[in-house]
TrEMBL record:
Chain intervals with Low complexity compositional bias: 745-758, 767-776
Record-annotated PP4R3 EVH1-like domain positions: 5-101
PANTHER family: ATP SYNTHASE GAMMA-RELATED, SERINE_THREONINE-PROTEIN PHOSPHATASE 4 REGULATORY SUBUNIT 3A
Name of the protein in its database record: SMEK homolog 1
Amino acid sequence: MTDTRRRVKVYTLNEDRQWDDRGTGHVSSGYVERLKGMSLLVRAESDGSLLLESKINPNTAYQKQQDTLIVWSEAENYDLALSFQEKAGCDEIWEKICQVQGKDPSVDITQDLVDESEEERFDDMSSPGLELPSCELNRLEEIAELVASSLPSPLRREKLALALENEGYIKKLLEIFHVCEDLENLEGLHHLYEIIKGIFLLNRTALFEVMFSEECIMDVIGCLEYDPSLSPSRKHREFLTKTAKFKEVIPISDPELKQKIHQTYRVQYIQDMVLPTPSVFEENMLSTLHSFIFFNKVEIVGMLQEDEKFLTELFAQLTDEATDEEKRQELVNFLKEFCAFSQTLQPQNRDAFFKTLSNMGILPALEVILGMDDAQVRSAATDIFSYLVEYNPSMVREFVMQEAQQNDDDILLINLIIEHMICDTDPELGGAVQLMGLLRTLVDPENMLATANKTEKTEFLGFFYKHCMHVLTAPLLANTTEEKPSKDDFQTAQLLALILELLTFCVEHHTYHIKNYIINKDILRRVLVLMASKHAFLALCALRFKRKIIGLKDEFYNRYIMKSFLFEPVVKAFLNNGSRYNLMNSAIIEMFEFIRVEDIKSLTAHVIENYWKALEDVDYVQTFKGLKLRFEQQRERQDNPKLDSMRSILRNHRYRRDARTLEDEEEMWFNSDEDDMEDGEAVVPPSDKTKNDEDIMDPISKFMERKKLKESEEKEVLLKTNLSGRQSPSFKLSFSSGTKTNLTSQSSASNLSGSPGSPGSPGSPGSPGSVSKSTSQMAAITTKGGLVGLVDYPDDDEEDDEDEDKEETVPLSKKAKLESS
């Protein structure tokens, strides 16, 4: 369909009372069987898809605004608008709507907006129109009362609006305004203020078009100066005519565009400065005023964007070295306002807008502007840059990478941004905070694109760490050459905290790029110098940076930390903090607790071996004692290599023993290592490193119960042999580890109490570390229950018991016979 009369944009009103563009298409009306009625249909001009299908409901209130807009509500909180390219198309569709609803097409609204009582409706219908008093000076009070009384009723508001339109009443009121001002008639001026304010609350586009016309708008503003509640009156007209100047930095040849800019500025001023802040009940009454400004801005941006001559001249003057400073400042301020207006555009239109600016060379122009000495100009350029980064960071990244192939690092756009962040003179670093946020957006991999041919993340991060990172870290490295920060004033501390925040973000998101940079440049050691700062927030930033590195559990980082003894500044800060219970204390303890819970073996060993003496007296938390316990468990594993062979069994989470399939070698292995496993450490497979000790106690306690049962049976056998006059065998147990874990001692004490001569109990002949010299005389007791699978098989219990009895009694009797002989 090529008929431009039917070309429309579809808008919906969002929760923030802003209009969202749903697309451009062509509108038609027709009967839709599914909706059972005449409907409005809009099909997208790009692909013909259906953008809108809305039944023309006989009871829906449709409004025609500005000759090219039709607005209505589909539901309680769902407003729609059609913006027509041509007035003729709007009139045509409006006639269709009025035809369905049985209304006269000359009206601008087809229904009452709010239901009224039947009595009120009957009273209003009995008088077909509203008759206004004659527009005279002595009747202003009567007119003001009529306007005020009509506002609560939607039907009366409609009739009042029609009467004001048809009789040209507003212009007559403004003529009386001039008379009142000449006569200094304050009472009449106060009445006129109430009348004009009431007309605004009628929320009618047709009335706004009269009031905002070139000949009337300044008089309307004049009426609004005389608020009875304010004394003296405000001089809004004086401000608009004398103080506020329209600077045409580039001549605008289109008179319609120029008039639209003037009108929009003045209406915006009325909304923001002149009209009193609307109450909750009045807010929706000014919705048409919001829409009027919104659509004006959309039109202005569109008209400027289409004027290639204007934009070409703008960027030519911006980048021309011959342009004087004052002129360039005006150009930058215009461009900033132009970009601010673009925020009213919808995403697809905004994308086209920024693409146009990019093609015109906005980024090279910004580079020139950021190099200027004028702080105001640089601030405006930063605002423009923020619009570009927030909307399309990939465009900025592509530009700076291309630029790096031609220019030195010092004059790269991104390095200029970093330098402005570092050199911000604001004591609160407001500009630096804004620039740091922009840099963070640029280096964030989450918004980087990946295509089949290239990965933006790899290319840009490679560029950033090669050309820009040294500029970012320069203040940090310059301030940390000694054991304490060389400058520790508040502003420097704030700047370093910002830099650390960005570096911490990089540690989390940039993996090997930042890892190589930190290790090669020894960044962490420099950062930890800031732990000695008098500013707690900076010391905490440094600690957070290290905590983020440790949180990655990367052995490359861990080896670097251990090699450079980088826990020393943290331990010093912890000890210097003393007994104070503050954020520093909690943050340091949390870091060591993380190492303990996650069982980072290399760091655990490093901390205990080097800093245990400094930390052993800390007993108000169990973190450091827990670390020591972890360390001892690691040592025991290393000193007892036979336990390693057990890992493969426990790693499978189940071990099913079948006595019939045991080979002789396996049986010998069980015989020789059984005692070691009784009192040795329970080995947790790697996949279960983070389990608590309680999680593995259950299978161990089962094992110890069975063992106790078997030992009691063995004692009975021994007792019988002693009673028969035979020599009692001597039992000695050997331990392959010299150190018992807490877990082992607890389990042996709890399960073997009451057995003074039992293996592993306190006071038993087999003390830890002793090696049996009389193994030839030791009774070969094979307790197959000594290894218990993590999954038990009840159906094998009887068979197991029979085998165990044989294996226990037979070797004992044989041994007894040999000794007696």
